[in-house]
Amino acid sequence: xxxxxxxxxxxxxxxxxxxxxxxxxxxxxxxxxxxxxxxxxxxxxxxxxxxxxxxxxxxxxxxxxxxxxxxxxxxxxxxxxxxxxxxxxxxxxxxxxxxxxxxxxxxxxxxxxxxxxxxxxxxxxxxxxxxxxxxxxxxxxxxxxxxxxxxxxxxxxxxxxxxxxxxxxxxxxxxxxxxxxxxxxxxxxxxxxxxxxxxxxxxxxxxxxxxxxxxxxxxxxxxxxxxxxxxxxxxxxxxxxxxxxxxxxxxxxxxxxxxxxxxxxxxxxxxxxxxxxxxxxxxxxxxxxxxxxxxxxxxxxxxxxxxxxxxxxxxxxxxxxxxxxxxxxxxxxxxx
Amino acid sequence: xxxxxxxxxxxxxxxxxxxxxxxxxxxxxxxxxxxxxxxxxxxxxxxxxxxxxxxxxxxxxxxxxxxxxxxxxxxxxxxxxxxxxxxxxxxxxxxxxxxxxxxxxxxxxxxxxxxxxxxxxxxxxxxxxxxxxxxxxxxxxxxxxxxxxxxxxxxxxxxxxxxxxxxxxxxxxxxxxxxxxxxxxxxxxxxxxxxxxxxxxxxxxxxxxxxxxxxxxxxxxxxxxxxxxxxxxxxxxxxxxxxxxxxxxxxxxxxxxxxxxxxxxxxxxxxxxxxxxxxxxxxxxxxxx
Lengths: 336, 289
Description:
Chain A contains 14 helices and two strands; from the N terminus they run ααααββαααααααααα. Chain A is mainly α. Chain B is built from eleven helices and ten strands. In chain B, strands 5, 6, 7, 8, 9 and 10 form a six-stranded mixed sheet that branches. In chain B, strands 2-1-3-4 form a four-stranded parallel sheet, sandwiched between helices. The radius of gyration of chain B is 20 Å and the shape is globular.
């Protein structure tokens, strides 16, 4: 019944879209500092002198936009990895792409402290390059067999790659200077204070490619969850769909991590929560998760920015504090 | 940098007492120091000849280059420490496991922790007592206190700029900024040098700072402290342009964003006097010294 699904699409996307819009409107109003919106939008004062305007446009707005992009990307990547690996525990971190991005950033902080390219520091660029490096390894693993991917091989490979790259980070930290090691620890806590629109602009390029990939996937992911043979029997080009899924989810993970550092739990909690609300169909789950992930991370960052004012918590602590107990509850509630 | 609150002060004092109680009666002759600040203190009081082992992070005075290295804060090499047959080991207060092992080997240790500026001279006096070199230690401590007082007097009565003291941020951007809070030797040095800490109300050694906080706190002066090679000062100076992204901050508008390079800003030893003088010259260039 196409009419029925179209109605549900409208309701679902409308609902989650409205939630995201509401959160995006509220979040820039609060922060560690108190500002007056009237003064922030007062054009009679030059921008260079207007503290309220600078707090709003330089500190808060890029942060809210960054949180939306990172949260949406991680949640969408979580949905796709869970379907691709046919494993509810899969997350953007599972296959090593996220930690690959961390290796890149840690290397740049240690070895390239003074390099900037086109006004963007080497750290996010190296981080994205690191995620591509990890993707190349995972892709080679995935395509080593001629007939489709084995989710077991991918999972095993991902786990091994993750611990291997984790050891690389430890090695770099061990060899680095004490102050550089401290910088890397800070980066690995994750932070959405992106500080400039150019970093966001750079992240939009891989995110746009990932979004195009995602747009082709929902039907294939629905059928893949029945198993690759069943999907192939219904006309899905399984090998192609799996590659598109792997590359798109990895690109969005890499872009997100290079923008904010690693932020856990969004990619695993949000998809499960959204499935509870809208069911398992990917044309609903995928866009709804992206919208809800964006809203969730903006809200978590709002808590991180305001709960302990004038100090701020790293946002990864807030997502874990909310996401961890919630996920355990979810596991207890659904005995299988 | 170790982050700690005032509540650990009691533990620190207890640790000093403990360190003294396990100390040998005769003055130690073979000292292993895992703490660069204390190594500098021992050399400055003229007892560097007794130091037989230093940490991987020791760089000053140049004489440490020829002394065996025995690991760092997180990875002390117990085997190397023991093989040097020390009769006193200077450890950091949090190196619990190392302390236990030294205790089992009946090797006396002195437990140290970074604190405020007055604690530096207090540590010099305590270490001097332990070494049986109280006279030299007291002279050194008194000289430092006089020098710091001279800095304090030189800037007295001048307007105190509200200062953001940054000791770390991501390279090439304003991300993950770490700054001095209202506690610890960096904060104390800033106060002596005639500046008011914009985070004086945050009673922590370090504050994780966002661009919003910098904009809201409106520092008159921003000083970045860089650990390492002074030859790279020009590089650090060039990188200061990242702050131009926040033009409403008075320090940015009035071109009062500075980079200071040198180990003396991160090693709370005798060279804090030089560090404080450099801070004072940066905050009050007109005071001329």
